[in-house]
Amino acid sequence: MKNFGIQNLLKTTCCFLFWLNLASNQLLAQDSVAGKNKNDGYLFVYFTGNDKKEEAIHYAISKNGYSFNALNNDEPVISSEKISSTGGVRDPHILRGADGKTFYMVVTDMVSAKGWDSNRAMVLLKSTDLINWSSSIINIQKRFPGNENLLRVWAPQTIYDNVKQKYMVYWSMKHGKDPDKIYYAYANADFTDLETEPEQLFFSPTNGSCIDGDIIYHNGKYNLFFKTEGNGNGIKKAVSDKLTEGYVLQDKYLQQTTEAVEGAGVFKLNNSSDYILMYDVYMKGKYQFTRSKDLENFQVVDQAVSMDFHPRHGTVLPINQLEMKSLVSKWYTVESVLKSPQSKYIKKNNIVLDSAAKKLFLPVDYETDLKDFDPEFPSFSGVSIMPNGKSDFSKGPKKISVSIAGKPAKTYEVNSGINNNPVLKGYYADPEILYANKTKKYYLYPTSDGFTGWSGTYFKTFSSTDLVNWKDEGVVLDLVKDVSWGKRNAWAPTIAEKIINGKYKYFYYFTSAQKIGVAFSDNPAGPFKDSGKALIDKKPLGIKGGQEIDPDVFTDPKTGKSYLYWGNSYMAVAALNQDMVSIDTNSIKVITINKDFREGTEVFYRNGKYYFLWSEDDTRSENYRVRYGYSDSPTGKISIPENNLILAKDTQNGIYGTGHNSVIQIPGKDEWYIVYHRFTLPEGITMGSAAGYNREVCIDKLEFNKDGSIKKVTPTLTGIKPVK
């Protein structure tokens, strides 16, 4: 009896353990699937510009919601020609369906070249894998009666109505002379058509236009973010308890910038209760990201954001690990991985990738520890990097292998080195440099570059104690906010330090709207206050062509008198009055150079000679370069040496468009440096005329022969070592 009982107990125990193990394995499998279905990253869907080829759907991905990398080399992932009636689409909005696995996208069916009042349609798209999409064109004017005077259909979006259990599409429309208003309708079950008549969802009580609506459900409320135009411009929101009615305007602007914005998009961060409100700063070619816990208060987080592309109005969708892997497998490449390291020490604009030779060079900041350096390559699901993490680059290149979604790996020779040129990260040009006796620091005052057609509207400054390590001191003058007489084209500043009544004063001369103004401050890092009017707003007597741009200020060390120089296609000079904010109009003089003079005058004094430097050719040309002459007077006549070319391109090192310079002397020493801009490297030479507004600031040594003539400068990648 006892043996029989023990046998039964053993059988029962074994059976229990078997089922326990089976259940455990099932739970582990479920956990594994759940882990793969858990949101693991983000998909950014956007378009890129106003050319027809740019009006298309693009994808980018991110692990953290801040650092995004373009898929498909930033080329469209869906053909606009195949899905639209106009040949172009804009403003893509993407939504995960209520079932968790179906995706819905809506886009504006529009080509901007045909005019802003030219489109009547939107496109509805549906997918189960984010890769293959079915689509339908909905022409509102043709589909629904009563829209004979409809002018435009803009920026559709989709939300699931839990009450009706249907997908609601909402968008802005403009009829005749009425302002844009936001409408809504319900899509059919297949998401191929709108099955209800469009109804008005929201309009501005101030009678301004309402466009680019984005509805987020939060804490029992529907938050409708939108852009208002015509009666104040910016991002506002209205709130309601119900999806389709009752929206009450919260009449305050939510954008955290003074720049023009549109295309507000809100998404929730994975593993967080916080939200990101982002919007397209469309006049500046960039996005701004803000973070919020309550959708009421927003803090700018731009310092954490990076993108290797330039998006226009789009939306972000959280995605899971399997979806990320699928997108990576379809549209990501080894080269995309290698071009997208995230280390803050890397000068990302200057990465050089040679896919034919399988080589990669990563330029890094001064004092980067190359013995223990991690480039921080993106590690999306489906990307394998060997070795990954920190390596010793101090002794030469490393072999790094990268594979995408199990495909054969590619091995690159990866090298890293310290390149002190450019000295500023990002796009800047026309640099002026000053040593401030008040602070014992150097200051750079450049044009803020990277804006299409030189359309920047603000100036920044940077400080340094050694000419190598530079601190961003922020915006010192904003034309839109600070200058009443000129709101555009912030170009080519210059600065003077003066002691007035025993105190240091700083006078900042700048170009705005092809006129020259002056602002002043007690500190070299500003902020500066504009004088209230243009200092130079017309051409000198006898001059018919050119522009009133590119000021340069020079104080004669022999007399203490200050002079202002300016001009494009001519060089003019005038004595500044003692107040430094006005000129002696009787002293205006045009200095004769030669037919090759273009712009960018720079004057300095050394060993009894007044040196005049200038740029010739066009800043969009790879042959933009610097020449010089000298004089016995700060107002000329200028003698031009036979071999007076001192700075030009270096094709061997890929350096082009070297020009518009300033010069700095190390205090107390006969040690000189030239500060100039070049095309962004390595992409500039491939950008055509756009290279002329995507420039970088560099510093190299300036040396003299015994007779005082200037030695030709060799523009370098490595730059200079810190000065003492």
From TrEMBL:
The keyword Signal applies. InterPro entries: Glyco_hydro_43, Glyco_hydro_beta-prop_sf, Glycosyl_Hydrlase_43_Enz. SUPFAM superfamilies: Arabinanase/levansucrase/invertase. Keywords: Carbohydrate metabolism, Glycosidase, Hydrolase, Polysaccharide degradation, Signal, Xylan degradation. Residues 1-29 form the signal peptide. The keyword Ribosomal protein does not apply. It holds the Pfam family Glyco_hydro_43. Belongs to the glycosyl hydrolase 43 family. PANTHER family: ENDO-1,4-BETA-XYLANASE, PUTATIVE (AFU_ORTHOLOGUE AFUA_2G04480)-RELATED. This is Beta-xylosidase. It comes from Pedobacter mendelii.
